[in-house]
Design goal:
There is one protein chain. This protein is mainly α and about 725 residues long. Among the domains are: about 1-110, P-loop containing nucleotide triphosphate hydrolases (Rossmann fold, 3-Layer(aba) Sandwich); about 120-205; about 210-285, Arc Repressor Mutant, subunit A (Orthogonal Bundle); about 285-365, no CATH class. About 70% of the residues lie in helices and about 5% in strands. The protein contains 36 helices and six strands. The strands form two sheets. The protein has a three-stranded parallel β-sheet with strand order 1-2-3. The chain has a three-stranded antiparallel β-sheet with strand order 4-6-5. A hairpin with a 2-residue loop joins strand 5 (about 260) and strand 6. Helix 2 (about 30-40) runs parallel beside helix 3 (about 55-65) and helix 33 runs antiparallel to helix 34 (about 675-690).
């Protein structure tokens, strides 16, 4: 690690690092997961990460070709864990650390093995002198014996030094004698020990000096499924109160048996975790270990439930006596800080015999994972929830997990897979008579149809969803269905109906204290106001929406409405503000892997750069938008990207090519019954025809566009009238 930092300047394209967890109580890191993380670090969106290990490895190697990157694969257990992660490019260097010789890498891949020696004696003594102080100089012979008794291994030296510091009245000679007695005891138990036994010797020496509560916590820490934990989780493991758990953790920190990760989180070296887990297996009866892990999982479930109650008060109630969060930001901070441990707890519980806790945790955290954009976590945890539901024969839970998986794939723009999951969920909801589930699944089916430009089909799904929610009195479901219907009305040019439905939805959701959904409706209402040219009102609603969405941590919707806010400023004639917001939106959508959001932001950036008289940038973003939209089947965005490119080509003096782009956009808009899209394409055709000198054809196209918009109170209609008057 130290060497990699020193060599950073020699690898200008960066470094990739992963802890392979080759040694310790946890399962080693899966090479496929490592490759997924590396690909995301190299700029691949989560939606584009291949599923097959071989495909991930091939994509990884192609991305590293000709790049100068240092890849650090730390703590590998075997050559098999390393092989898929080798770049295969001579411009990259791979550094692998392991306690194994990894002979297979040398034989098959030409690796150069470097055996790290133990600390040289002078450096080991310097370390002891730094940690213990003048006693090392005063007792040189015992100091050397202590150093050799620790095999000059840094971890053992630090722990032994801490023992010496805590016993200032004892001489180093006495401590060396005790260490020798401890080694003899361990050697009798393990005749085949090598020099690494020094760590075990020192750990045992330290462990036996812990108080019973400290020793109990130390053992149980080896069972914790996540990478680290805080004091309340430690208290849950031991069943002690929080103050006692903090005292025990402080003692373990002083003994170097745990290490602080941040202000209130603690982790362990994998040797320490393995040692602790072994003592737990040997000293704690199975029923006590089971009880400790059950308390821990219940603790995480209570914390997650309380956090979600603060974020989504209409949907959840905090458990009696559970933690309370003063505001949504505190709840979100707890979730963000515990996310890795929560995911690990769900996987552990699902695989080790706590299916009920796993399923409840997965369902409780679903909305957090979805809105915060943690889609890989959502995919993993809902996959376990689906398996648990099927094993238990719980059809309702199975349908819920299928619906959640459909939402993950929808976020990634993989609409065909999303539809498959959603249709299976809808079928089960119908089979068991779950009307609320049917309404929710129909709502998602409507979103998928709308994304694909099938507006009639989308409206049918939304109306069915609305009828079901009205019949069962589900006010939140009614509000969401009304809001989604409003979006379709807006895209079809039925602006009065769109605004009316948004306002109804807003009133209902405010009554239910649905802050996140209120934010989404406010944002969509802002979009509708922008259509009318009420730009100040639109910006006000969009900024209110962003405030609410940031408060509840809805990153996906934040990206969507930053995009819309940028587009409003573009139409308002403020290109610099437009570009600022649109680039923020694109960054969030790429970070989350939201392909549909990326397509829209790219399209709007292209349009903004046309107005800013930067045609090269407009072409670049327009072409990217077109590629993504066609890949996803997002026909509305495809039409917008074609118009953006057509307008840019007209500016660049290529009106013939521009005509072809606008004609394709017009055909798509007609298929979608999108009046606004048709008018936009006709306007673009008129501009290209005017440059070609075909005045009458241009006027005819502009008049067709005006006829489409004449009964709509939109600023584009006034612009067309003014343009026709000037062109007369």
């Amino acid at each position: 690690m130290h060497w990699a930092h020193r060599m950073a300047e020699h690898f200008p394209d960066g470094q990739l690092y992963v802890d392979l967890r080759g040694y310790g109580p946890e399962q080693p890191t899966d090479p496929g997961e490592v490759l997924a993380g590396f690909l995301r670090a190299l700029g691949v969106s989560p939606a584009d990460v291949p599923y097959d290990l071989a495909e991930r490895s091939a994509r990884y190697r192609s991305l590293l070709a000709d790049r100068q990157i240092l890849v650090l694969l730390d703590n590998a257990r075997s050559a098999e864990a390393v092989r898929p992660l080798l770049p295969g490019s001579p411009s990259c260097l791979t550094l692998v650390t392991s306690r194994d010789s990894l002979a297979g890498l040398v034989a098959r891949h030409g690796a150069r093995r470097i055996d790290l020696p133990r600390l040289p004696a002078p450096e080991a003594l310097d370390l002891l002198r730094t940690l213990i102080g003048g006693r090392v100089t005063a007792e040189p012979v015992p100091a050397v014996a202590l150093m050799e008794g620790c095999a000059r291994l840094p971890l053992a030296l630090r722990i032994a030094a801490e023992l010496a510091v805590t016993r200032p009245a004892s001489s180093l000679a006495d401590l060396v004698t005790e260490l020798g007695d401890e080694r003899s005891r361990l050697d009798r138990l393990d005749a085949g020990a090598d020099d690494r036994t020094a760590v075990g010797t020192v750990l045992s020496w330290s462990y036996h000096r812990l108080s019973p509560p400290e020793a109990a916590l130390f053992r149980l820490l080896g069972l914790h499924p996540g990478p680290d934990l805080d004091a309340p989780a430690a208290a849950a493991l031991t069943g002690a109160d929080l103050a006692e758990a903090r005292r025990a953790l402080d003692a373990l920190v002083r003994a170097h048996l745990v290490e602080p990760v941040d202000a209130d989180r603690y982790g362990q070296h994998d040797l320490l975790r393995a040692y602790a887990a072994a003592h737990a297996d040997a000293e704690d009866p199975p029923e006590e270990r089971t009880a400790a892990l059950t308390r821990l999982l219940d603790h995480y479930l209570a914390g997650a439930t309380a956090a979600m109650a603060a974020l989504v008060p209409a949907n959840r109630e905090a458990p009696p006596g559970g933690p309370a969060y003063p505001d949504p930001s505190a709840a979100r901070a707890w979730l963000d800080g515990h996310r890795a441990s929560l995911v690990a707890a769900i996987v552990f519980a699902a695989e080790r015999g706590w299916p009920n806790q796993a399923a409840r945790l997965a369902e409780t955290l679903w909305r957090y994972f979805d809105t915060a954009g943690h889609y890989l976590d959502a995919l993993a945890t809902q996959g376990h929830a689906l398996t648990i539901a099927r094993d238990a024969g719980d059809r309702a839970a199975e349908a819920t997990a299928l619906h959640h998986l459909a939402t993950v794939y929808r976020r990634w723009g993989r609409y065909e897979e999303a539809a498959g999951y959603c249709q299976r969920a809808l079928a089960i909801h119908r089979e068991i008579g779950d009307r609320a589930g049917m309404g929710a699944a129909l709502n998602t089916m409507g979103v998928l149809s709308r994304r694909l430009g099938r507006y009639t089909e989308a409206m049918a799904h939304y109306r069915q969803s609305l009828e079901i929610h009205q019949a069962i009195g589900d006010q939140v479901g009614i509000g969401l269905a009304l809001g989604n219907l409003a979006i379709v009305y807006d895209q079809l040019g039925r602006y009065a109906e769109a605004v009316d439905h948004h306002r109804q939805a807003l009133e209902l959701l405010r009554e239910q204290d649905e802050r996140g959904d209120v934010g989404i409706i406010l944002g969509n209402l802002g979009v509708a106001y922008a259509r009318h040219g009420s730009y100040a009102q639109a910006v006000d609603h969009l900024e209110q929406a962003l405030g609410l969405l940031r408060a509840v941590g809805n990153r996906a919707a934040e990206g969507d409405f930053l995009d819309e806010l940028g587009y409003v400023h573009h139409r308002w004639g403020e290109p610099e503000k437009a570009q600022q917001y649109l680039h923020q939106a694109l960054s969030i959508q790429r970070e989350l892997g939201n392909r549909d959001g990326q397509a829209a932001a790219l399209m709007h950036l292209g349009m903004a750069y046309v107005r800013a008289d930067r045609p090269a940038d407009a072409l670049r973003y327009g072409r990217q938008a077109l590629d993504v939209a066609r890949e996803l089947g997002e026909r509305r965005v495809e039409a917008g990207a074609l118009d953006c490119l057509g307008t840019t080509l007209t500016v660049l003096g290529q009106p013939d090519t521009a005509l072809r782009h606008h004609e394709q956009a017009l055909a798509l808009a007609k298929e979608l019954d999108d009046r606004y899209g048709r008018a936009r394409a006709l306007d673009g055709l008129g501009r290209a025809l005017a440059v070609l000198g075909r005045r009458e054809d241009a006027r005819r196209r502009w008049q067709e566009a005006l006829d489409l918009l004449s009964d709509l109170a939109v600023p584009e209609a006034d612009e067309l009238r003014d343009g026709l008057a000037e062109y007369a």
